[in-house]
Queue: 3 jobs
Job 1
Amino acid sequence: MSPSGDPAAEVPSSRSGRAPIPLARPVLGEREEELVLEVLRSGMLSLGPMLGRFETDFAAALGVDDAIALSSGTAALHLGVRGLGWRAGDRVLTTPLSFVASSNALLFEGVDPVFADVDPVTLNIDPAAVEAALDERTVGLLPVHIFGYPAAMVELEAIAAQHGLGLIEDACQALGAVCSDRRQVGSRGNAATFAFYANKQMTTGEGGMLIPRDGEMADRARSERNQGRSRASGMKVMAHDRLGFNYRLTDLAAAIGIAQLERLDGLLAQRAALARAYGERLRALGASEPGEGAEDGLLLPVSDRGDERRSWFVYQVRLPAEADREAVIASLEAEGIDARPYLPCIHLYPDYRQRYGFKGGEFPNAEEACRRALALPFFPGLGEEQIERVCSALGQALELA
Ligand SMILES: *Cc1c(COP(=O)(O)O)cnc(C)c1O
């Protein structure tokens, strides 16, 4: 922490002397304070009434029967994997272009992730690549709605049904996104996960949510988040029926989540407006969308196709193929602008290389996208003038302006 306690002060001040622009920042206000204070004054900091209220509110907002609040999105993925009965030696098909947690949750249970390459336009797992990678040990699919763009769920669900596979949607970056059949991610009858780290569309500081496939999965997850306690035993008897974890979400965090849900529509609309503003300015610099024919140039995130709707999470561009990304990041930093190489391919992390022998070149679409990826500052409250500053600094760094 900086001595002042101001997170913005941690970013090096810019050469130009203007205020630095961080990558992400949560929106917190009086309603969050009010509900957190209510918890503090109640003395019920865990397994109190806010937890159930958050779950009920979240399920209602999503239009599902049940939701289980957990200490993180990773915990939600882990309990989803266990709830579907995926075990050591099983194989699950997933995407290499994701945050590492989606695949790590499989490793926790000794399940082998089998990666399938992504569609170069949407950056989501390609159903044709999934079909090609199926084998007799495959028990499930774990698609990720990457950068908030909905995965091809209709096609993936058909593959799962045809081959009798389980399915978990990692919707941790995509709260509010809508698939081609106009159904929201996470509300399609599949097991699904959401996450509430401070940079997500809504936050609880740390936290996650599991949407169970059915009542049996819900009961198991509620027990496993609390050390495997049976429901009947309540808190009085220490009855641990099964192996469990401490994946409880505190009532302080749940209170923040309730307040964030109340403002979610507004937050999502603000993110979409910022993305439009970025798109217009970057197009003026010559950027285009993937699939428009200038694939080696500066690429914008793809626009919604048909009835698909992205829920804007990060604003990620792909730099021109020959650009020096480190140099671009350094020149943005000199202007006080925080930009990151978000995100690297999972199969190229040392742990995965060592376990499975990946060397690079296995998933060319994902690798090319990750190599060129750059996340720009993106959060509700980012001003027009700041977007202008980011785009002109990027244009200068790339010598486009
Ligand atoms: C954020 C995220 C998660 C879970 O993150 P936690 O930090 O554990 O809450 C999982 N998968 C993806 C794709 C994510 O972006």
Job 2
Amino acid sequence: MNDHDYSLDTLAIRAGGLRSPFNEHSEALFATVSFVHESAEMAAKRFNGELPGYIYSRFTNPTVDMFEQRLAALEGAEAAIATSTGMAAISTLAMTLCSAGDHIVTSGSVFGSTLNVFGAPVMGKFGVTCEVVNSTSLDAWAKAIKPGTKLVFLETPSNPMADVFDIAAIGEMARKVGATFAVDNCFCTPILQRPLSLGADMVVHSASKHLDGQGRVMGGALVGTKEMCREKVYNFLRTTGASLAPFNAWVILKGMETLPIRMRAHSENALALAEWLESHPKVAKVNYPFLASHPSVALAKRQQSGGGAVLSFTVKGDKLAAWKVVDAVKIMSITGNLGDVKTTITHPSSTTHGRMTQAARDAAAITDNLIRIAVGLESQEDLRADLARGLDQL
Ligand SMILES: *Cc1c(COP(=O)(O)O)cnc(C)c1O
């Protein structure tokens, strides 16, 4: 099947189907550690790369291949490579690209563990330096990206403030110094945003979020050129071992069949909730990329076909006021996760962003009255009522 001929709705269901000799209709789960060879000669040729074929599931597995092919087709990429988690994808990317003396430039509003991987706790130990840009301003990025920069990394829209970064402009700066430009596309998924078509070199995914979509299994992936994925990253990953389990690949692969319909529904629900929150007298400010009041709404609408599931807002009041709203919910789950059909509610300053210093939290505007919602697929009316219960008490 030639991927260019089909829409994302079709690719999400049909791309990457590998049928076994049994002709199963639904994609098969190959729960096996190793694969059998017909002769000593065949085994030898497979091991030295002369013959294609499966050897061992740390290297390759047909169910994992199906997931990789489907994700690559959706992102419009040559290839993808699956990892055990999103963080395995990000640490694999950094270790594959960087050597001692190299330099990473990252947005400061990326996933917290990502900053730890790029910074002193992990890459810093191997002599890689990291500069953090705490701004969407192109001037700030131009100052940070310089010769010697190997990796430029960002997440857009950001979590939880929904800042939108200009992928094409920052990509151009990375290209000028020969750096690889990677975008964590976990929030939008290829259904809402395709970073490669905007100038990114690589896309990073936590498949534990929307790709699965129901919060069941962990997974991750790197997406890009065949050379990057199938040679460089593959050689690193088959040796170091953070490969995706076939069962997890199978769950995510089947989850992706409903990704287009889910992402559009998440975006619709989130926009409706964001607009309602904006009109509520006890809400001070709402952050959501597709709100008319968002400072980068025009850029967001150029880069994304929907606003995604995640919004945040501040209540008129302090931390206890925010906690009151969180504690009043009956439907939403109080959990740090996102990318699930179940709506989740989080108080970032005391949980997901609780380990940051106060100064860092202030710089990122993670105030004590801020609440993040990852909007799921329950009814809009029920979600509004769930938040109104707490807000109306303030
Ligand atoms: C969750 C998340 C990750 C990490 O993924 P895991 O699968 O939990 O390792 C990375 N980036 C973003 C944007 C995330 O939300």
Job 3
Amino acid sequence: MYLAWLISLIFVLPCHSLFILLPLYLYPGTSASAWSNVTATIAANPTVQWQVIVNPNSGPGTYPPDANYIAALSKLNSYRNVVTLGYVATNYGRIPYATLTSQIDLYARWATYTQANIAVDGVFFDEVNNTAASAVYTYYRRAAAYVTTKIPSDVTPVVFNPGASTPAQLFDYADTVVQFENPFSAYQDGATIGTFQPGFNDQTAIIVHSTPSTADLKSLVRTMVQQGIQAVYFGVDCCYNVFSGQLLSALASAVLAG
Ligand SMILES: *[C@@H]1O[C@H](CO)[C@@H](O)[C@H](O)[C@H]1NC(C)=O
Ligand SMILES: *[C@@H]1O[C@H](CO)[C@@H](O)[C@H](O)[C@H]1NC(C)=O
């Protein structure tokens, strides 16, 4: 009897929990006002884990970021359930490697800023090339390794965003790979997950934009949890300029419900 209960408990408990990967590219405004729905939802859901991508200027911009950015980022860093990632574009491997390293150096420098905690924990590489080619592998392997040596964090997450099915090799270099970034109208629940590189759901993030208010996030997130997906985001608009408190709360509730 007790054993049966124990076994059922083991199968009911998720082996890992889905986190929310949030593209917060939007400028925070004064008093972090444009980020208020995000920070309110983070504060209201302390047991949900968030990885938040910040992006001052298609990359780190100039050092240090401006006063509004410093205030907003240090507020974000004050939540224990938040990990922050700096945005770095790669243009499918066409951005010179030296440009990547100079941007990573700038993000790393944020950790030396003493008046506020504006450190980022890791890096989100955007526009990742998902062609199975050795030149591609070398470029992204070196970029990811550079992050790990330069960013002084306990975890140093590295995220790649090809936004589509990705060769197995690239999963060796990143903690997380975004294998879907498309509008809600293109998201097909389990059928979409079935198009991903097999065997890597536990390193896979799904980013869905243009989500209608009628979307059944609970059901869609449940499928992701059952399929062992690592991270998720549902955004209301096409381009991550709008952060609806209502949709963020629904997403956090769906993740909590599992
Ligand atoms: C991706 O990499 C391959 C191999 O290096 C290259 O031929 C292709 O042009 C790249 N894709 C884009 C969109 O740049
Ligand atoms: C916060 O979300 C609500 C919808 O829940 C929306 O009406 C409002 O404009 C949002 N505010 C900001 C600052 O994004």
